[in-house]
Amino acid sequence: MDESVFNPDRPFSVGVELEIRLLDKESLRPKNISPYIFAHLPDELDYHVHKELLQSMVEIVTPVCDSAEEAVDFVENTLKSVAKIAKEKDAVLASLATHPFETKEDNEIFHDPRYEAFAEELQIVLHNFLISGLHIHIGMPDSEAAIRAYNATIKYMPIFLALSANSPFALGEDTGLASYRTEIFQQLPRAGIPQRFESYAEYCELIDQLKVTKTIETIKDVWWDVRIHQVFGTIELRISDAFYDYDRLRLMVLFFQALLIYTTRHPVNKEFYQISKQNKWNAIRHSLDGNFIDEDRVSSIRETAKDLVKKIAAEKIFAELHCENDVEPLLVLLDQEPISEKLRKIYQKSGDFKEVIRSEIIS
Question: Which of 9, 43, 58, 113 is deepest in the core (most CB within 10 A)?
């Protein structure tokens, strides 16, 4: 398929991809059993549970859904099926963007030509790539809407990083960050904050250069925090930490879906790259309590997000999505403490990283 041609999906449809860790139920260290999981999946889930770099990880991939609720229902039901298979190998599932005390020696890489090529190219960067993420796809009606939504996502993606940030611990210590996973991920050569594009043609020009120079084979080899997926016809938000809490995930996906509808109607102004970088750092370090710079104004990421929710609600977009009753729960969620702080308090009280992990086990 020609990836320079935008392939529209159902406007503002939803897809979710969630990476989940497989852990020994006693030691809570990684358990490299994903080949066993794949060998015992029911046929209807073959397409929806994917392998990842590590054999201690699987990825849940929803079909194209009409709503956040439908997508997260699918994730929940699929996790139950995978957890049942994992139990046969004395393993549990956990939503950890970083594991508090695992090492690279605990893990085995999945034997796949693509992953082995990455390992050869990236060397120590990939050896320490012990992280899990969450991706959200929103269908776009056309390429012009996609560019508007893409540019807006660059500006507002610190909000979704802050809402998901749950990786304060790694290698047996408190990193001092809300999302250490993000710092690891952006070491990749084609990761991090992408540039803004003035047109879809300009976006395609860059992608074509990367292909012609054999830097990438497909758009799958571009790991930006947000990307236009031409084949799927979506905007894909890739900045978020992996986590699993049904209500938080549903509200977060709904927020992103509604935001893209809003910003295709109200394009954002161009933002300096350094501002985008600083806002992202503020989310990495402080989650929702970090500063958000908007031109010459500063407020918290939390207050910026709440203001956006109110603007979207005033445009009746939540009503269009038949989710007007979710506005208040979303505002309540934005007032809650970040996941990273909840995990930090568990460790401060117990002094045991296992208690942190147990709080994130998917039952």
Answer: 58
